[in-house]
Design brief:
Length: 111
């Protein structure tokens, strides 16, 4: 009779699965930490230039969709913010920004 001293009864695949789960949890935790760091930076207005670049990239990645978004934003801006969600966003613009947009549209519209 063999003396089987089993101190680790789990098969190797169990430890592989545990290692995969630990790696997935670590990756999720690191992603969450990065997201929180970015959100904190956004709250502190430290990455405004990056936000502007990212918004510009949207026109490259999704041109038709961003044309529709831009059209809707301008309509809201020119019509006086009928959508309460967007009017809150436009409250960050200076007062003369609406006039500049309206004047630009009037000068460049092909009717």
């Amino acid at each position: 009779m063999k003396n089987l001293n089993i101190t680790n009864p789990e098969p190797p695949i169990y430890w592989q699965a545990m290692a995969r789960m630990a790696a997935m949890e670590k990756a999720a935790s690191e992603k969450e930490e990065l997201e929180n760091k970015v959100l904190d930076a956004l709250e502190d207005n430290q990455i405004v230039e990056h936000a502007a670049d990212a918004f510009g990239e949207l026109f490259t990645w999704f041109p038709e969709a961003m044309d529709q978004v831009a059209n809707r934003l301008i309509q809201e801006l020119v019509l006086g913010g009928l959508n309460s969600n967007l009017s809150g966003i436009f409250s960050y613009l200076p007062v003369d920004a609406r006039e500049k947009i309206k004047n630009y549209l009037i000068e460049n519209a092909e009717i």
